[in-house]
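User: Batch of two.

Assistant: Item 1 of 2:
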Amino acid sequence: MKLLYVLVLMAVCRSAAGSIDEMKRLYSDLFGNYSTKIRPVYNQSQHVDVHSRFSLLAITEVDQVRQILHSYVLMDLTWRDEFLTWKPEEYNGISSIHPPLTDIWRPKLIVPVSVEDRDVFKDETSSITVNSDGTVTWLPGANFASGCKLDMTLFPFDVQTCQFRFLPVSYNSNELKMVSSLISANTQAYTENGEWSLTASRAYTTERTFVDSTFSFLYVDIDLERRPMFFVFNVILPVVVLSFLNIFVFSLPCDCGEKVSYAITCLLSLTVFMSIVSELLPKSSDNIPMVTLYLTCLLGISVLSVVATILIVMKDRVKVNKENQQSPLFVIPRLCFLPFRGSRRRVWGEVQRDCKTDGSAGNWNSNGKVLEGQSSSGGYCVTADSLCMVIFTALWMIVSVGFLIQITQ
């Protein structure tokens, strides 16, 4: 029994030693006269087809101010090396090897629009496999920092398209051609981003001419849709509420002492939110975001309301009637064809109480009788506060509705 164990152990050791010897002989035969400077085709007039699979693993950050897309990408590059072929049966069944990256010819790809090092696939720890039929598979990965021009017109309801470009260095299209194995990016291992959602992608190759040479490019376009709810609930909604509260400054009486301070407080709050939004937007004038225009209009309405409030307070300090109420600007006659039960007596009494002055509404006597110049149908007394409140409410609604219409389109 012990003799059987010894024989099996000797056979295993001999097989392992034979495999090591065959592997050494295979490397010696393949790389003895191999040069990484020569394209791996016997007929140098032919081009090498490099098949690529672009895999997007994660989007780490979208720098909106500098307009840079940070992402992690894994490439699957495959080509045929005619110098690295063998018959597995002649080498103890060895069908694939994993040589060092520096010992084999590889297509050197750069990213022309990278804001950092353009040679992003210079990592020497990536995996490479050579099969017996000469098929070489290289799996490089890198953290990308590529430029991406952002259109912020519909911010924060925008959809951005970013593009990855890959160019093989030192070889024109007659020597090396890029071939996309997929029509879109591979997103099976993609990790969702909290701010952006990946909606679509496209992968294709094209040839572009520079000076006198034509090069084969690999393009990958990805569509990113912003998740707007965080910005809506933290910026837009508070601004809309503050601007709406600013209108109610005209409902405060002038003698309360807080009318102007209330308007200025709302103005300062809108200014703070404007500064927050400006920090999130790129420093570019190519396209102005609609949200910036909207907030600017609200800020302008707030400024005008502060000015109107100051003028109303100044007017009230100069003209104060005996009842310490605001004097009316004018009286709107009540239309005679809109009779309501009890409305005439009520409106008549209000006009008699609040508008007991000499003006455009007519002349009054002590008995409340209408003298010449006043219609017997009565009228509605309009003060500066009520007029401004109607005007600014209409402006606020026009600006807000217009913004919603532009965003939904």
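Item 2 of 2:
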Amino acid sequence: MLKVTVELWPSGRESGRRVLATADISRIENGALADYEVLLEEELLGGVGDTAFVRKYPRWSASVWDLVARCIAAGLNGGVETLPPRPVLPEVPVHDSDGTQYIRMREIPEPAQTFFRRNMAHSSRPFIESDREPRDCAWAYDWRDFLTGQR
């Protein structure tokens, strides 16, 4: 089995490292043209998708990174070895309430919503009385700072 681990080292310090994601790649059929099973997991989201397969891979024909890339692509794209379309920054509408610019947390698409909620867990947020969920809002500037890596 191959285990690919993605770690974050804040400011390049190993002491603060944490695992963000893993890929477990198992050979399930031997031979010159081997079959592999892949399971992708992320720290916050758990499993990224269903178990995927790379079938009849010509062993010893390329770098191990070729196999890893194909397995990750298959895991992200429903078993197809091509990469899915490149993601774009999430579009989140900015609302205004009496001059207060805010966003609604529920309008942030996943997985950005999970990451942003975690980032904002101990931060102040506006209470927007006119919103149907007044406690589920965040300052628009906090969202912009989050997207640019300032937060």
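The chain has two domains: 2-76, 95-147.
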